[in-house]
Target: Response regulator CheY-like domain-containing protein
Amino acid sequence: MAIVDDHPLFREGVSRSLSEIRDFVVVGEGASAAEAAELAARHRPDILLLDVSIPGGGIDAISDIAARSPQTKVLMLTASEEVEALVAALRRKAMGYVVKGSGSRELAEAIRTVMGGARFVSPTMRAAINAIDKRASLTRREVEVIDLAAEGLSNKHIGRRLNLKEKTIKHHMTEILSKLGANNRTEAAIRWREGADRG
Model:
């Protein structure tokens, strides 16, 4: 396993913690995207722990690591809790995303999960992924309905605005509640607004 982070003290701490766990061997450390690609090519580690905000960009480094060492699985280990960073990393085929505030036990679990071929995302970030999935499942019309409901409009007024029958709006709201996992329209509107605020 290799660790790439531009904070030496953090890197040393993680390396020390992992060396105390049986079966975990750290073969190299780096501080930039270029060094990450070099470590991948030289050592071909099973796992490469990678920070998002290293010089050269951690997310951009994922493709270079894969090109140099296809078998190396990238596990992001970062302070960033931005949903955009998480989504971008997973799209680039990172196998996991662990927030730095996590304990060594969670990191060890993440490494073992990724080594087993499964994806791992810190619990604090899973809700964001679930919310994105739920938002993506709404149809264009359902998005229009929940947008107006979030503004405080009743089914009747939403129907007038969209030139639809109130009964049709009620049907859309039922679907929206189910997809967003909400118990009522107020809860659905709050979840919708929260998701929009996260970007």
About this structure: The first helix runs from residue 8 to 19. The chain is about 60% helix and 10% strand.
